[in-house]
Specification:
By secondary structure, the protein is of the alpha/beta class. Helices cover 23% and strands 28% of the residues. A 5-stranded mixed sheet has the order 3-2-1-4-5, sandwiched between helices. Strands 8-7-6-9-10 form a 5-stranded mixed sheet, with helices on one face.
Length: 235
Amino acid sequence: MALILCLETSSKNCSVSICENGKLLFIQEYFNENYSHGEQLHVLIESLLIESNISISDFDAFAFSAGPGSYTGLRIGAASIKGFAFALDKPAIAVSTLQSMTSGLLNNNAIDFKNNSLFFPLLDSRVGEVYTAIYNDHCKEYLAPFACDVNVFSFEKYFQKHTVYFFGPGQYKLADIEHQNAIFLNEDYPSAKHLGFLAQHKFNTKNFIDVAYFEPMYLKNFIPTKPKKPLISNL
């Protein structure tokens, strides 16, 4: 059993939680369309530590959402966790972003899922693409995470034998799909509140990362874009 600090920075939702024995104790989140993890992440961490009256040295481990998702966001989250783990000589835990989304959905007791179902968490990627994976109703990986061209990938073949649930902020790109076995659920962004359960399991099995060499699951090469604001204002 463990007290774990969890960071989720893979999307527009910058999220920090404290979990104990896989259960959520505290959470703070900041959503920004333009991404602001570099400015907000450590503000949220400090605020959460004050709210919980927990010291950074009290944690047994540090966990983070390891992708896929925003290249810059993933790097910020990974660097922060690596720093805490190295400085305090505590283990670091990487959790799949898509699996944590699925775990959060499956642990929602308000939804009665059909047997033999498949789950597609969907994160927005480039134009016409999403990041996704397929999980069964026990949150076990059916198809590993991949970058998907929604105009090429055949989702329909899974409808023949399964009820298929689509969820997450990228599902709008599949709006043309109409089938009785295709069910669209929430558009919720990834959240640190869903990391604790999977992080606890990895802690119990000592499934830790090597902080010196671990890289997040980017799936794509980084493509720089022009800044929305000028780096140097006119004098």
